[in-house]
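User: Can you fold this complex?
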Amino acid sequence: MRYLRFRVPLVVAALFICACKPVNAQIWHGGYRVSLDGYVVPSLSAWEYLSIAATFDPLPWSCVRPALHAGALLPSFPWEGEKPIASLGLSLTLCTVQDHPFDRFLRSDSALTPKIDIAWHVGSQLQNIVLLTQPWTLDFGEKQVGMLGFHAVYDLNDHKWGWGLRLFEIAHYTW
Amino acid sequence: MDLLFANRFSHSLLSAILACMKRASITLCILMVFLAMGLLCSCQTTERLERMETQNIPFADYMEQAGIYSFSSTLPVYYNNGAQWNAHSLELIEQATDYILISTFLGVEHPSSNPVWQALAKKAKEGVRVYIIIDSSSNFQVVPGSNEVIQSAFMYLRELGLEAVEYNPFSMSNLFYLPLLLDRDHRKYWVVDGKMLAAGGINVNHSSIDWPSGLGAIDTMAQVVSPGATEAVVRTFVQTWNAYSPKHLDAADFPVCSEFPLGEPLVDLWLVDHYWPSRSQVSSLFDAFSIYAQQELWLIQGYTFLTPALLDRIRYAVEKGVEVHIMLSEHATQPKYEMASRYGALDLIDAGATVYMYDSPEGAFLHLKLIVADGKLVTIGSANYNLRSQTYSREMNLVFDDEQVGRYSLDYIETLLKHCRIVSREEAQSYRNVRSFFNFLLMQVWG
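Assistant: Here's the predicted assembly.
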């Protein structure tokens, strides 16, 4: 009965998730996401990757809100032999902070929505698990803008860790 | 340092970048897609209308099948020009005690419109909840007849401390998917204290309320008391707000008064709240007027930009014996609108319609969007007789099937006719030139 060791954290997690009642009238379910990333990982190029993905946001929760994404990382210099990398992942918006200190500097109302992300990158002789933490994500309603996220990258082929930075990310809801 | 000013500059920089892009090439690509859609629609329009007419469905059932629902309502009160509505809106603001919801396609910071914003800010300080939705198209307004830019009211509203949301903002993120820019909220409606609903064509901007000075555009806001329609409009306001703001509202927080004024006659009101493609109601609305008109059809539509399918609806009505009258207008705020609407006059005449040109003695533009069939079926609102209103623009119209409303509307049309001339075929032919043609194409997506 090993799982009994985790009963307290599991119950706390379940209560936490139940407390995130659905926001009444969120109507966005998905869209696209564009980001610019750089990695220090032997299996990846040292140049930037432009990442494009479709995103699906099925649950209108104010915290621990999951979103699925699928797309590709496009290398900056494909003519030098670098190939696109497929990407599939899940992101979790941890919480929504309405009155944050940056709100008054911005044109429109925003909420601070820090998030974490786990993705699987698959390419030609390449398989990575990528964990992203992105505390600086702003939700404007129809789009989210994030910057300076940190990647922890685990190369499944070489069994080595690397790291990376997400310079910026724009997720735009379209439906 | 005014940090908000920095935001204004960066936003203006984006606007400048967009303006410098090769508009023609972008426009041409989008136009080809839309024109192809329009041509395809044309092949099916007449057959569809014939099929629907032979089914003999009562109007109420047709509207319900189209997802357009009816509510009990008082007779509408029309405010028939921008200045008239502006004065009345200031009274409504003054009398408000609970909440004011405003959705306007265009809202600008200008001496003509600032009294409205300032009155709303004063009310907000007194504890009245005020929420305003402005479309991002407000960033591209100029003084009519000049290149002098008028600022959108959005930042001004925030400086006044008002809660405001910009619908589908023009921003750098749109560069990754340009077609999204075509999604615009063209609706103009007000809800005050859950007791009053007004919808129509009048914006909170200079061109609508004070150009020409003291009169504004010839346009109408129709005010009704209709608890059911008001509830539906509150819900749509909240949904729109929540889509463009992280600070979500709840429709349950905006109670609607369920009572009608004592002794007032009640009529049926159908609420068209168009959102393409999931709630594509404007095309159904246009179809309804073509099908159910049996004797006479009036379209007061200054922004008529024809497509084959729209022309087919006119032709269909004419061929079954309906007298079709269409009123265009002089004195548009920008020449491209006038050229685009006039370009179609020859097609309308050849289809059998009578085309009128409204020439206001004061130089006002007829911005009204009114359709009347057989003196009984009436629609008034924001929907223009063009492709954009059928597709990417969000629109709101009120529809009535009532002889009193019909007579009231026809009486108003009679007053407009005093300043109209009938457009002859020769005059219509003179509007067919290359420049008008390109503006006609441009307005299919821009107008």
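The first strand of chain A starts at residue 30 and ends at 40. The mean pLDDT of chain A is 84.
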